[in-house]
Amino acid sequence: MEMTGGAHHDMLEGALMQLDAVAERIKLDPGIHKRLRQPQRALIVSVPTLMDDGRLDVFTGYRVQHDLTMGPTKGGIRYHPNVSLEEVTALAMLMTWKCALMGLPYGGAKGGVCCDSTQMSRAELERMTRRYTSEIIGVIGPDRDIPAPDLYTNEQVMAWMMDTYSMQTGVTSPGVVTGKPLLLGGSLGRREATGRGVYYIVKAATKERGMPFNGAKVAVQGFGNVGSVAARLLHEEDCCVIAVSDHRGGIYNPRGLDIARLLTECAKDGSISQSQDGDRISNRELLELECDILIPAATEGQIAEENADRIRAKIIAEGANGPTTPEADQILAQKGTLVIPDILANAGGVAVSYFEWVQDLQQYFWHEHEINARLSEIMTAAFQRVLSLARVERVDLRTAALMLGVSRVAEAKKLRGLYP
Ligand code: NAD
């Protein structure tokens, strides 16, 4: 596979290194190991899009399905200038381990379009989304591969995907995507599921560490779907959220920020950067603040070899996918920082996506309290499973989580055997 940008190359290398290390630890069958190192399918498509000024732009889109052993694949779609085949492949692999760890009947996938969606109009985004969907239509579907929102995609993008798929197949198919608007078969609680899952995990982790939850000082990087919901729920439960940030920078108040006000400002201005609620800080400074809990909920590779030593949080709950590099992981482990890995900490999103898909297939919709109760149960049970294995094997939580995920997929592959 051709490698392009450095960071994405590193991310895929990192994902493969993690798999190799776990394979050795669990004595993974060498044939299955080889199969799991490669995605089962990777599709690259051209996405010609008419721009508002009459120009035609051609974007590159991807959909990678890492493993289809246990069911259809599942994973988000991101619109970002960094999207590449390597990045999407690494993220698809992470999704496989995440779904397996959580006991969901899915393999992992990921997709995206390399574009700067912040500079595009709504009409341009719609045209690009529809063309991208029709280019990948042969590999998606309610029983094939089910996309969901990720970085810079949202309910509206999912609605356009669902409509394009439904119009082309001639059947209204809500189950082809999750994270849709409620009116089109979306699930109550899906919008906030990832952030809510992070919140349940943070609560369980403070308990495990014997740290007080009320009043715990929290810093959150990224104020989008994941970060803003985690910040709000923690703030509502009397944690002291001292800093939040978005791509323009952060805001810091040691006495605690008013998250409800920041959400209103963000909805109005599209950013928290105009807020007067505290002092301006950079994203780098936010990560290094003195706090109990740090939640990276933006992009990958934020905690790396250069800054890991300066991280002062006691617990890091990875809301984002891949925010900590393998080198940083080692430094943090030596310092005794408890890192709750992405495949566990942010699995609330795919858990409620699964609930949404089940509701769509049955055309029977659940109450929000049922969804949140099931989410809480699935997250805390997974946390306990990971914690117990980490204790028995004397490994960090990431290694334990990967051991559980990879073993489950390997077991399923063994049972199915090799076709033909
Ligand atoms: P989003 O687009 O809703 O929000 C992203 C936020 O990060 C925005 O506030 C943006 O300004 C900020 N940001 C972007 N680049 C940044 C940078 N370099 N430094 C600081 N902030 C930056 O995206 P999201 O859905 O909240 O996803 C965030 C992360 O969580 C991603 O890594 C995604 O893969 C992961 N994730 C999302 C879900 C989900 O359900 N949405 C589920 C699991 C994991």
Named CATH architecture of the domain at 193-345: 3-Layer(aba) Sandwich
Q: What hetero molecules are bound to the protein chains?
A: nicotinamide-adenine-dinucleotide
Mean pLDDT: 96
Task: Count all strands and give the number.
Answer: 12
What fold name stands as the CATH topology of the domain at 193-345? Answer: Rossmann fold
Radius of gyration over C-alpha positions, nearest whole angstrom: 20 Å
Compressed to H and E, one letter per element, the order equals HHEEEHEHEHHEHEEHEHEEHEHHHH
Major sheet summary line: 7 strands, mixed
Mind telling me the CATH superfamily name of the domain at 193-345? NAD(P)-binding Rossmann-like Domain
Helix/strand/pairing class, anyone? alpha/beta
Percent range for β-strand residues: 15-25%
N-to-C CA distance: 25 Å
Helix percentage: 40-55%
Q: How does this model look, in words?
A:
This protein is an alpha/beta fold. Among the domains are: 39-174, Leucine Dehydrogenase, chain A, domain 1 (Rossmann fold, 3-Layer(aba) Sandwich); 193-345, NAD(P)-binding Rossmann-like Domain (Rossmann fold, 3-Layer(aba) Sandwich). Helix content is 46%, strand content 16%. It has 14 helices and 12 strands. Strands 9-8-7-6-10-11-12 form a 7-stranded mixed beta sheet, sandwiched between helices. A 5-stranded mixed beta sheet has the order 1-2-4-3-5. Helix 1 packs parallel to helix 3, helix 12 crosses helix 13 (368-393) and helix 13 (368-393) packs across helix 14 (397-416). The model is unreliable at 1-5 (pLDDT under 50). Bound molecules: nicotinamide-adenine-dinucleotide (NAD). Residues 149-152, 194, 221-227, 245-247, 283, 297-299, 319-321, 346, 349 line the site of nicotinamide-adenine-dinucleotide.
